[in-house]
Design a protein that fits this description.
Blueprint (H helix, E strand, L loop, with lengths): L2 H31 L2 H7 L2 H9 L15 H9 L16 E3 L10 E6 L6 E4 L14 E5 L3
Helix pairs in contact: 1-3
C-alpha cells in the first residue's frame, strides 16, 4: 500500500478513536450530571457512534450545470457511469452506492419524488437513465 495512504488511514483511525473516547466521556457526564436538555441530546449519541463506526465514505459534489461534476466522478470511479455532455445531463440528485452485502449483481435503482414506487433497472441497460435524467427522480446506480 502507498506509504502516504497508509499514514493517512492510521491518522484517520487515531482521530476516530479520539472522537469515540470523547463521545463516551461526554455521554457518561451527561448521564450523571446533565440537565433534562442534555439528557435529551444524550439520545443522539448512538447515532453518532454508528457514524464513527461506519466505513462509508460520503462525498458531495456541487456546482453549476455542465461544469464537469459527472466527469470528475467518472474519473474517480474509473468507469463511465454518469453521462457527460455540454448540456444538463444529471439535473436531479444522484446518489452512487456500493452494492449491499450479499448482492453481487450491479443495478440502477430509481426513487421517484412524486410517490411512485422505486424502480430497479438492469445495470447493462446503458440507455436506462438518459430519459430519466431530467425527470423528478433520484437515481442510484450502484458501482461494484
Amino acid at each position: 500500500m502507498n506509504e502516504s495512504l497508509s499514514r493517512g488511514l492510521e491518522e484517520r483511525q487515531f482521530h476516530i478513536q479520539r472522537a469515540r473516547d470523547c463521545l463516551a466521556r461526554t455521554q457518561d457526564l451527561f448521564g450523571r450530571f446533565g440537565s433534562a436538555e442534555l439528557k435529551t441530546a444524550h439520545a443522539r449519541f448512538d447515532e453518532l457512534k454508528r457514524g464513527l463506526e461506519s466505513d462509508r465514505v460520503q462525498l458531495a459534489v456541487l456546482g453549476e450545470f455542465s461544469r464537469g461534476k459527472s466527469e470528475l466522478l467518472n474519473a474517480l470511479l474509473g468507469i463511465e457511469l454518469l453521462w457527460v455532455a455540454n448540456d444538463a445531463t444529471t439535473a436531479v440528485n444522484t446518489f452512487l452506492h456500493a452494492l449491499s452485502p450479499g448482492r453481487d449483481e450491479r443495478f440502477i435503482l430509481i426513487h421517484y419524488q412524486d410517490g411512485r414506487p422505486a424502480e430497479e433497472i438492469a445495470w447493462s441497460d446503458d440507455e436506462a437513465l438518459k430519459p430519466r435524467s431530467l425527470e423528478t427522480a433520484t437515481a442510484r446506480r450502484s458501482p461494484a
